[in-house]
Amino acid sequence: LWRISASEFQLRTYQGQFLTCDGEGNSVYATAESPSTKETFEIERKNNNQVHIKLKNGPYLQVTIGNQLTADYPGTPGWNENSATFEMTIVANNLHGDYQLANGYGHNKAKDVLRRHRNSFITIEDFKFLYRHGINAVRIPVGWWIAFDPNPPAPFVGGALEALDNAFSWAQDYNIKCIIDLHAAPGSQNGMEHSASRDGTTGWPTSDYISQTLNIIDFLASRYATHPALLGIELLNEPSAASVPLDVLVSYYKQGYQIVRKYSPTAYVIICQRIGNADPLELYQANVGSHNIVVDLHYYNLFDTFFVNMSAVDNIQFIYKSRESQLQALNGANGPLVFIGEWVNEWNFTSGSQTDYQDFGRAQLGVYDAASFGWAYWTLKNDRKHWDFEWNIKNNYLPFGSSPSLKIFNTLTPLGLVFSWLYLRQIL
Ligand SMILES: *[C@@H]1O[C@H](CO)[C@@H](O)[C@H](O)[C@H]1NC(C)=O
């Protein structure tokens, strides 16, 4: 569902075609590759899940015998059972990402919302907090439109570049290093809200989007390569294994590596494992670049039915048995460095006590500590308290201070909506 305005929408099928109607009396087909006027419908909504769909200045659509939709309902339908009243179901992805925020508010309001957000969400005080807790780096997610600041393509609004500049300068003040993480690539590399997908699809792996993405990497590398706070550039966050073929991804990573090297002989180039059904070893064997290369793995005991009914003890055992052995194998793989670039002290287990969380956190910190590059917590600040690193520290849910000589690292999301962390031990 593409929202054009509060009342106008375009409807897209799973194959990518848009519903189209030539006018009054005509049937609706899903044939259009891109949307324009004939693909734009007005939707009226009642009680959240009942809708009427009509042509602009035309009749309402109705279902006819034979499962056709036609634009010929006589008059105005009521909300009783009739052939022009549809039930709307949000099936999978109820997206609340940067795209939806900016598109939903409209340019002026979104600009104001994001300005206030950026002014208050991550400030120099947060860097002071990081410094006081021995954290030595931040992983900062950015969206592709940052390269077009201050006037990025609609619906995105400017301001992210200034926020990134601020983060670099605050980081420098506190002797903290920065990783820039391309979290949202043009077209979306995983269909999720945090990659700024418009409608849940993954459009990224086309040559056009890939060359645009390489231009974004060029922009970021050229701007920050000589900044003393730069640690590395992560070429793409969480590409989807279901939609992004390995050979396409490896070719992109190799080109991205060369672009970063054009500007910096030493900045780390970080490549992220595919999410879904993919073995991280695939990137260790890919020969992406010759030096200062890092593979980023994300370790969540979440997002998979595998974890659904696990007890606290099951969760902790999983960290020791599965995560630890994988980490050791990759550390010893004589390839890129290992980076646990996202993890969180949260699980599906719903009745965890403070002690349970401390035990889980201690296990994770202990195991991820062995990653040859480091780790990053997702995230520094979050509206869900267990995802909020500062909350965990202040409320003693994560026995962070008990690990000796911990140094960390972290992040902002595309808009600076999230800030996650990383612990870098061997480097700094
Ligand atoms: C979790 O446990 C519930 C209750 O025993 C069961 O109905 C459900 O199928 C289990 N889910 C999974 C994914 O194992």
- Indicate the radius of gyration in whole angstroms: 24 Å
**CATH topology group of the largest domain:** TIM Barrel
- Enumerate the distinct ligands: 2-acetamido-2-deoxy-beta-D-glucopyranose
Percent strand equals 15-25%
Question: What is the CATH class designation of the largest domain?
Answer: Alpha Beta
Q: Given the C-alpha coordinates, what overall shape results?
A: globular
Q: Look at the structure and name the CATH superfamily of the largest domain.
A: Glycosidases
Give the overall pLDDT as a whole number.
Answer: 90
> How many E-type strands?
18
Textual characterization of the structure:
With 428 residues, this protein is α/β, with parallel strands linked by helices. It has helices at 98-105, 107-121, 124-132, 160-173, 207-224, 246-263, 281-284, 312-331, 354-368, 389-394, and strands at 2-3, 8-10, 18-21, 28-32, 41-46, 50-55, 60-64, 68-73, 86-87, 135-143, 177-184, 230-234, 268-272, 293-301, 337-347, 374-377, 408-410, 420-421. It folds into 2 domains: 2-87, Trefoil (Trefoil (Acidic Fibroblast Growth Factor, subunit A)); 98-427, Alpha-Beta Barrel (TIM Barrel). The protein is 30% helix and 22% strand. Helix 1 packs across helix 2 and helix 5 runs parallel beside helix 6. The longest helix is centred in the last third of the chain and has 20 residues, at 312-331. The model is unreliable at 402-428 (pLDDT under 50). The structure holds 2-acetamido-2-deoxy-beta-D-glucopyranose. Residues 305, 308-309 line the site of 2-acetamido-2-deoxy-beta-D-glucopyranose.
